[in-house]
Amino acid sequence: MLRLVRTTTLSDLHAALDEARAERDAARTEAATATDSAIRAESVVESQLHQLARSHADRLQAERDAARAEGELAALRAQALLDTEDRAVLRALLRTARRRSTADRVYALFRRGALHSVHATLEAAEAAAEAEGAPRSGWATQPAGAGTPSAAEVAWRVQPLPLGGLTTA
Question: What are the residues whose beta carbons fall under 8 Å from the beta carbon of 159, sequence distance 6 or more?
Answer without folding.
Answer: 107, 108, 110
